[in-house]
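Homework help board

Subject: predicted structure for assignment chain

Our instructor gave us this sequence and asked us to write out the predicted structure in token form, then describe one feature. I got the tokens but I'm not sure how to describe them. Can anyone check?
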Amino acid sequence: MHKNLLSLLLLLSFTLNASAQGVDPLAAKDVEAQKVWVDSLLNTMTLDEKIGQLFMVQAYSNQDKKHEDFITEMITKYHVGNLIFMQGTPDKQAVLNNKYQAVSKIPLMIGFDGEWGLDMRLKNTYRFPWNMTLGAIQNDSLIYQFGKRLGKHCKRLGIHINFAPVVDVNVNPDNPIIGNRSFGENKENVTQKAIAFTQGMQSEGVLANAKHFPGHGDTASDSHHTLPVLHFDIARLDSIELYPYKKLFDKGVASVMTAHLSIPSLESDDRLPTSLSKNVVTDLLQHKLGFNGLIITDGLNMKGASNYASSAEIDLAAIKAGNDLLLIPQNVPETVRLIKTAIQLKTLTEARINISVKKILKAKYWAGLHQYKPIVLDSLQQDLNTVKDEVLHRELIKNSLTVLRNRNREIPIGSLENKKIAYIKLGDDSGSHFVKMMQNYTKIDVISDNNLDGLLKKLKPYNLVIVGYHKSNLHPWKSYKFKDQELVWLQEIARAKEIILDIFASPYSLLQIKTFVNIEGLLVSYQNSKLAQEISAQLLFGAYKAKGKLPVSIHNFFPEGAGLTTTNLSRFEYTIPEAVNVSSERLKKIDSIAKVILKEKMAPGFQVFAAKEGKVFLQKSYGYHTDKQQTKVQNSDIYDVASLTKILATLPLVMRAEEEQKITLDTALKDILPSFEGSNKDTITVKEILSHNARLQAWIPFYIATQDSITGKNLSEFYNSKKTKKYAVKVAENLYIDKNYKDSIYKYIREIEQREKTGYKYSDLGYYLFKEIIEKEYEKPLDKLVNNEFYKPLGANRTTFLPLQKFPKSQIVPTEKDDYFRNQLLHGHVHDMGAAMLGGVAGHAGLYANANDVAKIMQMYLQKGFYGGKRYLKPGTIEKFNMRYYSDDQIRRGLGFDKPQLNKDIKATCGCVSDTSFGHSGFTGTYAWADPQSGLVYVFLSNRVYPTMKNRGLVKHNIRTEIQQILQDAILDE
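My token output:
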């Protein structure tokens, strides 16, 4: 064995980088002042006070006064100089921290185990991803930022040393204690990420700690419960386990944690843990590797150490081995006695104690304890859970997601018009956030069954199945393994259907899958957190590219470092305001306005949506469907969007027709609708109609001509309560109109007098005509045409005419209690009277949608006709229609689109948007606007006409544009 050790030392002398020998990671920038402070304390300390500095006792913030008294006694009676806080809450920990610091003669160094954030021990604190997730990231500057954020959290809570990063190279998939806590199996990847994390955290004045020396990554047992044995020779240890430490020492990592392991090639006594071995801690770590920082044992309550001898004997052995700090000692009084006895017997010297105490005091100075200040209790929770944390967390997840198979290029999912998609959940945890986010993009049906045959039968109509494997995200040690039944079901589903498998668990779960032949798409999302589910769903639908690389190997199927890049389809990304430089604090004004709207009954409920540069940062619903307050408005609920129909349904088809030269802007009405030949409208042009400069009347109340002029009742010659061959067009519930009345409507339009006054006048009438023109040119109904050409491929599956044919009433928001025509609550039947008389499908009204879908169409316009990997319209077409042609006549309108006001007294917009912006408003209390200059898309949907259209508070107070102003003001300066 002595030959082995000699061989190791010789090998290390050749292979180790000697530069670490000169690095003092505990030296402060003001090293001379540090030396004065350290020496002045050391020279005045008694032996008992020095020995007290060697202990780091565990303290809890969730225990009783008895425990608090015990900690106080440890500090005052035994001069304990360091605490490690365990479970509890940040508020209580801060109070106790201040209390314990106040009774300590020398400031206490506070330690913490926060590998993925303070959440590792404390409730109500922030949780970042596990190291295995971070190991998939290719941009190490993000790991630096993670270390820096965690350093800020530690600093805010009075923590001076955080026991992270884990630098174990996890080459053993069966490792029961490291696993997800490791950056992976590649020593270079582990090293670079550990360096980045260390530098980030230490830049905030918090000591990092590389653990578990000399390497816990290839163990099959847990040192918390037993003493793991590593039967590796010296060359292997040097090339794998020790590699990260050598690099980290060169980069100035402040401390190292010694592990409780048995490594015969390093220590001949197979009962002696490496943490208690002088050969390992002094000869190897300090002398040969040249580490000059703080050396701390792993927890001395762990069975890997505590089984060796009595608690006090273990503590003494740890000091003799060369450790500086005893982490979680179990018997401080007895340890003090043994150390003093050892000094008396000259088996230990006070000079040796001084070496460790001096390093501990240097570490305290480095961490700022020479200028100790109590923790400020105010705003502690807010400071430990900031939007900056979530912005970073999102970036970490986005950069980690790893695509391993993409056989038919199903990722990202395109061509939604050809997809019928089912989702199946495997695993014992929830996938609800994953499903909800996917449903922002298209229709996703959740399918389940108690038996496989039943499941396969239900899947027959679907041509794509997304299988989510969801395992608990409670902590990194939770089981990630498939059940045998799940493995069988997975393979059978994959044989029957094209599938994408998304793994929300450790990548090691893939080791159980015997073949991937029938699995077309494979995505590893690593964890089952809410953010991981949401962001993974967005990647599947092309909101951004896959960038992650697998940090571990999966048999011969996928080597470490595997990972495919996918394409960005320019679909919406769903995020938080600060991710797009918008202030969430300023957006709170919208909540204040919402309270006024609901209190003043301007509308019973509404949706507000906003996106910037293709990133959705606001998607919120308020209130209820009606004043009965029985059904809360959901983001998925659909509203009658009224005149938004013009730009969401009719206009894109007019644009398409103009591109295909079926019409031109200068085409006269008589040339595309011959029935208007010889009428007073025969020479008006497409351009004039779209610009509302065609002298058309604003509207015609067609329904009045079908009612008794005295009673106002609907005449039986026009209506029936039941559908018949003659009365075939449904107007509302139990109300059908003569199918030929449509001809009368167009006759009215054709024959009504033109306005004598020239210039601007907003009119619905031209859009009645555009419906006829489009249906004539394409020989298809307008609703079917726009659905097939735009809504289906856009994934706007919650946008439709005639909503009762597709959705239950519970998902449709009512409009008006009509007492003048239909005499009922309009619930799923269009509010506009003329559109209702045409059966619910018209060029000017009739469309229903939720805000999310409206925004997709507006974003397609903003992206110059492109969305979701598909081009719908040419960029030049968008530019052509988003242009004023009659501005000299003070007409603000573009072609179909409304534009910012030219007259400051008219509130078409907030007056805060660019002149290139465009949109429209709707009578029912709707609004959609897009601004190419700011990249902002804003949608407001409401049923302000409830209970009646006389409810004009929303209009009177310019609520829609007031919210637009708030959105604009919330954009922060770059």
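Reply (TA_rk): Your tokens look well-formed. For the description, you could write something like this. Residues 575 and 617 are 5 Å apart (CA to CA). That's the kind of observation they're looking for.
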